[in-house]
Amino acid sequence: MFAWYQIYLSCQSRDFFAVVESGSKCEMNDSDAISRTTFLTWAGLFQCGMLIVALSLATWADVDLWQYLTWRPRALAVGCVAAIPLCVLSLWIQRSSWGQFRDIRNIWRETLLPLLASCHRHDVVILSLMVGVSEELLFRGTLQLWFSSDHFWAAVIAVNLLFGLAHAVTRLYVVLATAVGMYFTALMWLCDPPSLLAPIIAHTLCDLFAFELLRREASAAES
Fold first, then answer.
1. What's the pLDDT at 157?
2. How far is CA 23 from CA 17, 26, 217, in A?
3. Nearest residue to 94 (alpha-carbon basis) of 6, 222, 213
4. Closest to 128 measured CA to CA, from 210, 197, 60, 58
5. Ordered mean pLDDT values, 10 residues apiece, the chain (223 residues)
6. 48 and 134 in contact (C-beta within 8 Å)?
7. What is the per-residue burial (b if ≥16 Cβ within 10 Å, else e) of 82-115?
8. Residue-wise over 165-187: b if at least 16 C-beta within 10 A, else e?
9. Do residues 205 and 80 lie in contact, with contact meaning Cβ atoms separated by under 8 Å?
């Protein structure tokens, strides 16, 4: 759900912000949040780069992504409904007292709160859409379709494991991200004909929900 560039930017910004966890909330000073322009610029560049890689690989491997992007009401419905359990999972992670979830939550707060603190709601919407589109076109689109031409299930497992490793925040998070990737694959093939719109919509809505929760927490901490 959360790309590595967010953690990278956070690490690069240690001199500019600090998040102090106090109980269940994080307190931040005005100087804590990284520049909104800096964050959105790097985020946009990274996601556009991922999109370019996806489209370039698809062209090189002769993968026709566009046939899986035709607008269909069923894909929209499947994506919207499928986002609900993912949002529940995000909420559970952010509210649970279980140690493994607390570790993930603390990393989210340490890395994402300062980045989202200066963002507006429309920034979060655009960011979520960029993540959903670029990651799904790369993983469930280009890579999975490319490799599945020979060995479907091997491709599904390998690509979604790669997706999990790309979200290597903690060991549990790798497992969760891999499982969510498999879930997105199922959504794609649940549509008739198969559609990338379903996982794109589910991915976007899930990230939007999680980002917005963190953005509101950051805003509350600043007030």
1. 95
2. 19, 8, 13
3. 213
4. 210
5. 48 42 44 69 90 96 92 92 96 91 88 82 92 96 91 94 91 95 96 94 96 84 64
6. yes
7. bbeebbebbeebbeeeeeebebbbebbbbbbbbb
8. ebbebeeebbebbbebbbbbbeb
9. yes
For residue 145, the enclosing domain spans 4-222
- Judged on CB neighbours under 10 Å (0-12, 13-18, 19+), 142 is buried
Here the tokens at position 179 are 């499982």
Provide the number of structural domains found in the chain.
1
Distance CA 77, CA 75 (A): 5
Quick one: DSSP state of residue 29? -
Cis amide leading into 193 (omega within 30): yes
Whole-angstrom CA distances from 2 to 47, 51, 59, 62, 63 are: 12, 16, 27, 29, 26
176 near 168, Cβ under 8 Å? no
Least Cα distance to 101 among 5, 169, 6, 184 occurs for: 169
Task: Write out the two tokens for 116.
Answer: 């989202």
Alpha-carbon distances of 151 from 60, 100, 146, 147, 219, rounded to whole Å: 19, 34, 10, 7, 48
Q: At what angle do helices 197-222 and 99-116 cross, to 10 degrees?
A: 80
* C-beta separation of 14 from 111 below 8 A: no
